[in-house]
Amino acid sequence: MSPILKKGFTGLFLFLAYTVSAQVYNPLSWKFSQKQINDSEYAITLHVDIQKGWHTYEQYSDSNGPIPMAFTYTVAPDYKLEGKTMDVDSCITKYDSTFKLIVKYFFNQADFTQKIVVHSPKGFILKGNVYCQVCNESMCLPPKAFDFAITIPPTVPPAKSGSSGYLLIFILSFLGGLTALITPCVFPMIPLTVSFFTKRTSAQNKRKSAGPYIYALSIILIYVLLGVLITAIAGPSGLYVIASNGWVNLLFFIVFVIFGFSFLGAFEITLPSSWVNKTDSASEKGGLLGIFFMALTLCIVSFSCTGPILGSLLAGVAQSGGYWSLIVGMLGFSSAMALPFALFAAVPHLLAKVPKSGGWLNSVKVVLGLLEITFSLKFLSNADLVGLHIKWLHFHINGPMGILRREIFVAIWIVMFALTGLYLIGKLKFSHDSEFKHLSVFRLILAVLAFSFSFYLIPGLFGAPLKLLSGFPPPASYSEGWALSSGAPYGQSNGGDTPGKTAAKSVSVHGCPPHINCLHNYDEAVAMAKQLNKPIMIDFTGNTCVNCRKMEENVWSDPSIYGIIDNEYILVSLYVDDQNELPADKQSISKFDGSKIETDGDRWTDMETNLYKSNTQPLYVLVDAEGNILTPQRGYTPDITEYKQFLEDGLNTFKAKAGSSNSQKSVFSTNNPPIKVN
To answer: Residue 344, class by beta-carbon neighbours within 10 Å (0-12 exposed, 13-18 middle, 19+ buried)?
Structure first.
C-alpha cells in the first residue's frame, strides 16, 4: 500500500473511532471577523488556532501532495471579492517523507485575509466555508469544511443633524443679536458711532471711509475669538460636561436671576470702569488698531445688556455637544450686532428712519428681564435632576432632588408670562418706566401672545404634553402623576411585572417615558435580550438633554413608535450625566482618552465615545445581544416616519440574522463580541 493511502486509512480509522466514542476530535479552532478599511471596503480575517503537534496545509499544493486549503464565499449582490484570500503568516516549508514532496503548512496558528468591496449600505451577512485537511506526523484526519457567517454592519452615514444643527444655532444666535441691538446699552450707540465715521469722512474727503466696515468686522472678530477661546479651553465635549454639572446649572440659575432683576431696574451690572477707560484711550490712537479698540469698548460698555443674552447662548449651545457650536453661535450673534453699523454707513439716509431713543427701550429691557427670570428655571431644573456632587469632599446629593417637579415648573411659567402680559398693557410698572398715554398695536400684539401662552400652559398642570414646550420643562416621568402616565423599569410598571420580562436588578432614580418599559444598565439589557431573544435599543441620553426630551415627548409618544420600542426591543436608557458613584472595584481608566471612570455617567460616556464614536445626545443604537449593530445609528430625528423606518430596519436585520443563525450548523464569531462595560 502506498504511504499516502496508508496515512489516509490510518486517519480514517482514528476518525471513526473518535466518532463512535462520541468524542469527535478537531485540532482546528476557527474565528472569523471583519474590519472596515474605508467607506466601501472591508478586510475579512480568518484566524485558525492549531493544536500542538498538528498542522494544516497552505492553499496551493502539488496535485500529488496533501489536500490544500480552500476558501469559498457565497455569491451575493451585496459585495464582490477584491483579489484572492492571502496568507498573513509565513508558512513552513519542509520535505514530507510521506508524500515525498516539499510541502508548505501552518502550525500553532495562521491568519488569512480577504478584501471585499461592499455594495449594500444596509449591512448583510457574508457566508462561506473553509475546506482543509489537518495532519500530524503519523496521520491525517479527513478533510472538513468549516462554515462561517460574518456580519458586515450597515454603513453609518454622516450625521444629518450636523449642518442643519449649526444653521439653527446661527439663526437663533442672530436673532439674539438683533434683540441685543434694541437694548438701552446698544441702541443709542448706533447713530452716534455711524455719525462719528460719516462726519470724519466728510471732513477728510468725499470718498466713503472703510472705517464703519472695519468697525463691524472688529465686533464679529471679538465675539468669535471669545467663542474660540472658550471652546479651546473646554475641548470638544467639555462644554456639555460643564453644562450638565449640577453646580454649574445652579450657578447659571443664580446668575440669570441676578441679570433678570438688573433688567427690572433693581440695580445695574457693569464691568470695571478701568477696562472701559483703557480701551477708550486705546481707541484714540487711530488707524485699524484704534477702530478695533472702539469696537472692544462697545462690547465692554454694552455688557450689562448683552451679558444675559450671551449667557443664554453659552448655556444653550453647551448642551448641543458640537465642537463648533459656540463659535457658530458667536458668529451669528456678532453678525447681527455688526449689521446696523455697516448697513447705515452704506446707506446713511436709512438712519433718519430709525426710532428715537426713549422709554420704549426700558420696556424692552423689562420684558427681557422677566423672560430671563422665567428661562432661568431651566437651569434650576437641570441642577435638580442631576444632583449636586463634590467628589473630593465625598459630598453627594443624587438627583432628582424633588425641588422643581414638572407641575411646579409649569405653574411658575404661567405666572411669569401672565406678569409679562400685565406689564405690556400697563397694569404692572417698575421704577424706571415712563408714562405712556395709549397702548400701541405692537405692544398689544405682544401682550396677547404672552397671555395666550400663559393660558396654553395651564393644561400642563394636569399632565398635558405641552408639545410647543417639549424638552424644556422637567420630563413627564418627573411629575406628581408619573405613576399614572409613564412607563417604568421592567418589573416595576403600574400593572405589575411585564409578562416574560424579569425585574431589573439595579435600582435607578430615572423614570421611563410614557407607555414604555426600560432599563438603565447595559449588562442587564444584554441578559434580558438573550432571555427573550430580542434586539436592544441603546438610548444614550442625559438629564439636561433638551433634544432627548423632545424625542421622548414628540416622537416616542406616537403609538406607532412606542408600540415597536416596548414590544419588539429591550430599551436601555443610559444617562451620560448620571453622577451615581461606582463601587471602587468597578472604577477604571478609559482606554479611549485616559480619563477616570468613576460614575455611571462616566461609564456610559466612555461606552458611547469608544464604541460608537460619538459624544452627542441623543444617540440611538440598535444592536443584538452580541453587540452587533443592526442598522446605522441615529441622533436627533424629529420625523416620525423616518424614525419608524429606522426601528423597522433594525428589527428586520435582527430577524434575518436570527433566521440565518438557526440554519447554521457550526459555531462562528465576529469582531463584535458581547460588550461588557467595566
So the answer is: buried
pLDDT digits (tens, 9 = 90+) for 416-439: 999 999 999 988 888 777 777 788
Q: Strand 124-132 and strand 144-152: pairing?
A: antiparallel
Q: Of the ranges 335-349, 505-519, 573-587, which one carries the lowest mean pLDDT score? A: 505-519
Report d(CA 478, CA 510) in Å as an integer: 9
Q: DSSP class of residue 352?
A: G
Q: How far apart are alpha carbons 522 and 545 in whole angstroms?
A: 20
Of 496, 471, 631, nearest to 557 (Cα)?
471
The pLDDT tens digits of the residues spanning 335-361 come to: 888 888 778 767 766 666 666 666 667
Read off the pTM.
0.58
Q: Give the integer Cα–Cα distance in Å for 18 and 12.
A: 10
| 111: amino acid identity, one letter | D
**8 A C-beta contact, residue 173 and residue 333:** yes
- Hey, how many other C-beta atoms are within 10 angstroms of the C-beta on 439? 12
- To the nearest 5 percent, what fractions of the chain are helix, strand and coil? 50, 15, 35
Most confident of 219-223, 313-317, 508-512: 219-223
Residue 351 in contact with residue 275, Cβ under 8 Å?
A: no
Contact 154, 630 (CB under 8 A): yes
Could you tell me the pLDDT band of residue 391, with boundaries at 50, 70 and 90? low
Angle of helix 273-283 versus helix 287-301 axis, rounded to 10: 160
